[in-house]
Sequence to fold (414 residues):
Amino acid sequence: MQPYELFIGLRYTRAKRRNHFISFISLISMLGIGLGVMALIVVLSVMNGFQKEIRARILGITPHLQVMGAADGLNNWGSTLDTVAAHPAVRAAAPFVNGQGMLSFDGHVEGVMVRGMLPDAEHRLIGLGDKMEYGTLQDLQAGSFNIVLGVDLARALGARVGDSVLLITPQGQFTPAGMLPRLKQFRVTGIFGIGMAPYDNALALIHLNDAQKLFRMGEAVSGISGSLHDLDHAPQVAAELERILPSGTWVTDWTRQNANYFAVVAMEKKMMFIILSLIVLVAAFNIVSTLVMAVTDKQADIAILRTLGASPKSIMQIFMVQGMLIGLIGMGLGVFGGVLLALNIGTIVPFIEHLFGVQFLSKEFYYISELPSDLHQSDVFVVAGMSFLISLFATLYPSWRAARIQPAEALRYE
Fold:
């Protein structure tokens, strides 16, 4: 592109003679592109924030990977534990026992997932001790038959620390009267809160040895849990462990255990990107209409430039400069506003809620009561690049139409 083409294109963009309406449409196009880019950046940042928050809460109770055995559990699990712990990517490993049952207290009955674990090892694994609202994990001692409940589960039962609850398990015993379930009393010594309903209202923790006795597993365990130095490497580490562990065991990781959560968030993020991109497309149509009107308004100027030796390619580039400048200014405004809003959304949203007396995410209905934001540099680049390309394509037809103008035809009625 020659300097004069750039100069004329910029001059046409700034010119205000006889084309106030065209200038107004250009302004609307800039604002439309800016609004679309800003909305895209903010929404993608919020979706990233929700994904990050959900992942943090899920992994607050879920190990990064688990080594499982057959239906009767893992026998001689000590060697399996050593193998998992020896992997360089594994930060900590611990055995666990999973089972199901029903808790009864003061006339209330709730179904529960029972998890038997070693308190010290479990704290190193997922930091569960930091989620305790009452009591400590250290109160879960072998043979004490103490129990720690999720906060919503304790609330549903009406149980508090120090109360005795009755745990009913399906591993019953045969009697002349028929099959009778096993009953065992446990003393509530702690209450934890994760912030995720599936765990807070249905999970109960007991000591590993007590769980082995309760579910008649002998010395076996349900599996081995592991936490990693880098949780994003979980699928690769799980595949490596499957190759070196004995047959009869299989390894799963957090990405497979909670695939539905993250698949839904990823799909919503893609759909929001597509939907909000329509704002930029609408603004791009305004660029087309602006340039078409500009070409019609500048037909005499185009004819004079052609007479002076300007090629059709040069004429095309002049109007492409005008359209791309509109797109670049709009993109710049949108990126600036979107980044600024995404970085400060934690302050802006509470201010709006306080100003109008509303709450967008009520604690009574949503797991996450604050609007999170996680701005990714890659999202900003993708949105900016997409808006620039749309603006570029929007200039092609009007510029091509300007390049086809014949000087003699354009000057005939001037």
Remarks:
- Residues 3-57+261-411 form one domain.
- The chain has two domains: 3-57+261-411, 65-257.
